[in-house]
Amino acid sequence: QSALTQPASVSGSPGQSITxxxxxxxxxxxxxxxxxxxxxxxxxxxxxxIYDVSxxxxxxxxxxxxxxxxxxxxxxxxxxQAEDEADYYCSSYSSSSTLVVFxxxxxxxVL
Amino acid sequence: QVQLQESGPGLVKPxxxxxxxxxxxxxxxxxxxxxxxxRQPPGKGLxxxxxxxxxxxxxxxxxxxxxxxxxxxxSKNRFSLKLTSVTAADMAVYYCARARGPPPPFDPWGQxxxxxxxx
Lengths: 111, 119
Known about the structure:
The structure holds 2 protein chains of 2 kinds. Chain A is mostly beta strands. Chain A has no helices and 9 strands. The model of chain A has no long low-confidence stretch (mean pLDDT 96). Chain B is mainly β. Chain B has no helices and 11 strands. In chain B, strands 2, 4, 5, 6, 9, 10 and 11 form a 7-stranded mixed β-sheet that branches. Chain B starts with a strand and ends with a strand. The chains are: A mainly beta, B mainly beta. Chains A and B meet through strand 3, strand 7 and strand 8 of A and strand 5 and strand 10 of B.
């Protein structure tokens, strides 16, 4: 069982916006601004899309945005494109003995 | 451009030791940053294994700590993972990655290497 809770799947049509949630506790998501999001296509390594809750690395489309409220972080993808279909994982620093925790992943389907 | 590449045996027998190496190019591993290992069992999510900084500071996932060792070889600009007493539960794609610190993010990642545990 993953430390952070994500929906197993979300879907949307091209052009629409979707949001993926990532729920933790005050010991991880809620306590620190160290939430990151990764995109993983089948058979590929994860790719960093958002870090420190809402910062986009250079080269990542501005269609991707991140936010946090309390113990829940969110990844929003606007203007959905077919290439966005992938698995998405959140991660956070944790003050528990497990310093780095991941969510269980969310499969995004572009209809 | 920083690149990471995992290497090592793709098949390990139960109870034996898994050994993987991550070669880093485009950046001196001794300069800065943490260097970490993450694994992903087939069809499942990501699990942080541990991270190392400057050869002397290591952080391990408590669930694996008794079996894991991460080390750095600055002369070859690479770092390594050893996981002892492997079982079928250790079968996974193992990724190496660069990290800013104990906190995420991890970026970039290696392409990953599948390790199968079987006799």
